[in-house]
Design brief:
By secondary structure, the protein is an alpha/beta fold. It folds into 2 domains: 304 residues, TIM Barrel; 86 residues, Sandwich (Immunoglobulin-like). Helices cover 25% and strands 20% of the residues. A hairpin with a 5-residue loop joins β15 and β16. The two termini are 40 Å apart. The structure holds 4-nitrophenyl 6-deoxy-alpha-L-galactopyranoside.
Length: 419
């Protein structure tokens, strides 16, 4: 799974029939995430299924989405192949409830995305709601009477056959993003994991397969672990509140907040899986595009400090003004605030060279002991003028000024605090 560890940044796509009501059904607005509208308003399956007749997302442009992800510096894409609503967003032979068979659109957007990803050299994974299926009478539903269902039948007749399709019809699949296992047993989760690995041994399995059987863990939306974890982890996150498109949700995160999150997550060794929700016409909300484009401007000059980095040993201080990332022989100091100069205490590695990552400008440095006898790095901006240095970095320095410190040693070493 080295590719996944190196990628650090991915694009999540939540897209399904829920993009049509987009947060409002029969005059009623939902307060919850838009892809839950069928459950939240208890819309009967046959009624909800009528949405398919209006689904004709002519604006969906797989190539443009892949390019958006690439420009933002993302290394993989994960798209909903079937969310809890039960509707297959791909050409599935084992159900009639699919975008190809039951909509006027009649095309397979996932095939188009898979082809675009292959052309652009970006990995593609599929979200698949393995336990919840609100359309299938034997699929689980949160807060419903699940014990009465014949889940075995659903597993054998829908879930496993559909997974088999996804893993045999679209070329190499990077990962299956399972979700909300609810009361699935460990054996059932294991059965799905085994099926994935049998069909594509290199395909990763997300943590929400249940019973700790994932190759990595997913946290809750924007929950970032404070301390190192046993398993690799990823933070799935939205750009506003909802995953699926909600016409009323305008609480967009600022690009600066997204960039800060990315750095914080990567500095702690995690991945950031950032979501877009195309609307009912297939269009990606303009705000989402704008945010991702700005993240791309940061990544343009600073990608080396994000992609392919690994978590450093835990630095003993909370810097407040920034974060550290690194790779063999290099430490990247991410400076997010105004600072006359940059000082790091308790770092003992030997400096070779210090420069601004995005333009290569060298910075003066000093390696010494403080009056207290602590190892210390001091680094100065050219002419002691951070603002002028920031201006020379252009868009790459707007939020974060990344200082690259080349060191003699492979691994940076921090002195523990001993007082
Ligand atoms: C789930 C889905 O129900 C939701 O629609 C969306 O697909 C999201 C990515 O995943 O919601 C969850 C599931 C688990 C947590 C948070 C949201 N969690 O563990 O904190």
């Amino acid at each position: 799974m080295q590719w996944w560890l190196d990628a650090k940044f991915g694009l999540f796509i939540h897209w399904g029939l829920y993009a049509l009501p987009a947060g409002e059904y029969k005059g009623r607005k939902t307060n919850n995430i838009a892809e839950w509208i069928m459950h939240d308003f208890q819309i009967p399956p046959q009624e909800y299924a009528q949405l398919a007749k209006q689904f004709n997302p002519q604006q969906f442009d797989a190539k443009a989405i892949v390019q958006l992800a690439k420009k933002a510096g993302m290394g993989y894409i994960v798209i909903t192949s079937k969310h809890h609503e039960g509707f297959a967003m791909y050409d599935s032979a084992c159900s009639d409830y699919t975008i190809v068979k039951s909509t006027p659109y009649g095309r397979d957007p996932i095939r188009e995305l898979a082809m675009a990803c292959q052309q652009e050299g970006i990995r593609l994974g599929f979200y698949y709601s393995q336990a919840q299926d609100w359309y299938d009478e034997n699929g689980y539903e949160q807060d419903a009477d699940n014990e009465a269902k014949n889940f075995r039948k659903y597993l054998d007749e829908k879930c496993k056959p559909q997974l088999r399709e996804l893993l045999t019809q679209y070329g190499p699949v990077a990962l299956i993003w399972f979700d909300t296992p609810l009361i699935m047993t460990a054996d059932e989760s294991k059965e799905l994991r085994d099926l994935v690995k049998e069909l594509q041994p290199d395909c990763l399995v997300s943590g929400r397969i249940g019973s700790g059987l994932g190759d990595y863990a997913s946290t809750g939306d924007n929950f970032i672990p404070l301390l190192p974890t046993k398993k690799p982890w990823e933070v799935p996150a939205t750009l506003n509140h909802t995953w699926g498109f909600n016409q009323f949700d305008t609480a967009w995160k600022q690009p600066e907040a997204v960039i800060r999150n990315l750095i914080k997550i990567v500095s702690r060794g995690g991945n950031y899986l950032l979501n877009i929700g195309p609307d009912g016409s297939g269009r990606v909300p303009e705000e989402s595009c704008r945010i991702l484009e700005e993240v791309g401007e940061f990544m343009q000059g600073n990608e080396e400090s994000i992609v392919g980095t690994k978590a450093l040993p835990v630095y003993p201080y909370d810097l407040g003004w920034g974060y550290l990332t690194g790779r063999s022989g290099k430490v990247y100091i991410h400076v997010l605030e105004e600072k006359p100069m940059v000082q790091l205490l308790n770092v003992c590695s030997t400096i070779k060279k210090v420069y601004l990552l995005a333009n290569g400008e060298e910075l003066a440095f000093e390696q010494r002991e403080t009056c207290e006898g602590d190892a210390c790095w001091n680094i100065w901006w050219p002419n002691d003028d951070q603002e002028a240095a920031r201006a020379r970095l252009g868009a790459a320095g707007k939020v974060d000024m990344v200082i690259c410190v080349e060191i003699e040693e492979e691994e940076v070493e921090f002195e523990p605090i001993d007082f």
